[in-house]
Amino acid sequence: EAMELAIVHNTVDALVSNIKNSEAEPQVYLQIAKYYEQHSQFLKAGMMYETCCKSASLRPNLAENLVPSGDFYAEESTNGSISEFIDACNNSAVHFYLKDGTSEAIDSAIALVGRVRSSSQIAQVVDWLADQTQSTSSAASKEG
């Protein structure tokens, strides 16, 4: 079973490398993001949500009525609005970058927020950074 899962992961990774640069339909990136999300590969999920945004902005007619689910934004419905869909995808991307927590993922979240300049995404990053600072300082005070 582990071998089969490894083959699936390698197949998905190969598919992703073949459809970079937002060349596929938004639905493809959305499905890949959900796959990575289900397998706790949060950096890759964030990257796919971000790529889905780029693809949707290039092909808005193909993004109508798609809902970026994710465990964070499953309840959001975009009512067919392309701008709401892109915003929801960006929110999901930032969420999964922060959930991953590696320096590469945090850098990606900050870069995305810098490009998009959405107040809700800025708030996500600021809240996450505040939580990290608070937990680090409380851990340091317990040690001292």
Automatic annotation (TrEMBL):
InterPro entries recorded: WDR19/dyf-2
Determine the domain of life of the protein's source.
Answer: Eukaryota
Coiled-coil residue spans? none
User: What's a GO cellular component annotated to this UniProt protein?
Assistant: cilium
The record's Gene Ontology biological-process terms are: cilium assembly; intraciliary retrograde transport
Q: What is this protein called?
A: Uncharacterized protein
Source organism of this protein record = Chloropicon primus
